[in-house]
Design brief:
It is a single chain. This protein is mostly beta strands. The chain is 0% helix and 49% strand. It is built from no helices and 10 strands.
Length: 114
């Protein structure tokens, strides 16, 4: 089964930007939908963004207009460009396909703070 590894997180001030990457160990070209989720301590996992096989995108309401999901099939990588970051964006960010792979990766921590 393909494995997914998230990277690119870090500490950023409010209003700043980060780009997250989700690198797959195998081809993602046959996956109908790839998605980003996030989870803050004590909170349920929350949908962030998705991109389908035809590059159609969808976003959760809290990130609309600020985040952009994209993918590069040749690199087997999905990206999440995050702009105008807010403290409430602080969370561990995960990627997965829909339907979910059974094993989630470690995620990458994003902390937005002054």
């Amino acid at each position: 089964q393909v494995q997914l590894v998230e990277s690119g997180g870090g500490l950023v001030q409010p209003g700043g930007s980060l780009r997250l990457s989700c690198a797959a160990s195998g081809s993602i070209s046959s996956f109908y939908v790839m998605a980003w989720y996030r989870q803050a301590p004590g909170k349920q996992r929350e949908f962030v963004a998705s991109i389908n096989i035809d590059d159609r995108t969808m976003y959760g309401d809290p990130v609309k207009g600020r985040f952009t999901i994209s993918k590069d099939n040749a690199k087997n990588t999905v990206y999440l460009q995050m702009n105008s970051l807010r403290p409430e964006d602080t969370a561990v960010y995960y990627c997965n396909r829909i339907p979910f792979l059974s094993s989630w990766g470690q995620g990458t921590q994003v902390t937005v703070s002054s």
